[in-house]
Amino acid sequence: MSTINALCTEDSTSPTWSVSLQAGLARVIILHMRIAVGCDHAGFALKQEVLRFLREQGFTYHDFGVYSEERADYPDVGFEVAHAVARGEYTRGILICATGIGMSITANKVPGIRAALCTDVFCARMSREHNDANILVLGAKVLERDTALEIVRTWLTTEFPGDERHARRIQKITQIENEYNRGGH
Q1: Is 97 annotated as catalytic?
Q2: Which CATH superfamily is domain 34-160+171-180 in?
Q3: Which has the least CB within 10 A, 19, 34, 64, 74?
Q4: pLDDT tens, position by position, 5-33
């Protein structure tokens, strides 16, 4: 499995995160990436692994909870993370519940959020390259630890290229969202 070596360098204007990927992957520059992370009780153990990975790789994150395996309702944390990302307080978010479905539904109710439930590395890459997903959702009971961490790594280091066809499609999604938010359905 590839590992990430994250280096923080500062110039006179802003910090730049330079993430060097082994195994022949291209260099990715991540500016000011702040990650909001949350889970329900079923995702707690996997969230701990994700937080350890983020910490080891030098990513900046905030843990929105939950903080134990005591039963909790996924919409509460899912909304908090999605709202924080939508407001621009965090660059991206990661949500974890048993299947990922409940967190996906919750997060995608927040205007401006494009939450992607990813079950493999291909989906993680495509969610960034084609959909500019700003929240990654994982199912703790459907993913092995190593697969989940590889999905996180891929998702965090894949940028949206912004080509015309994908940008146009995202704009159409935003227009649909805006139409419903105005009550014009």
Answers
A1: yes
A2: Sugar-phosphate isomerase, RpiB/LacA/LacB (3.40.1400.10)
A3: 34
A4: 333 333 333 333 333 443 333 334 344 68
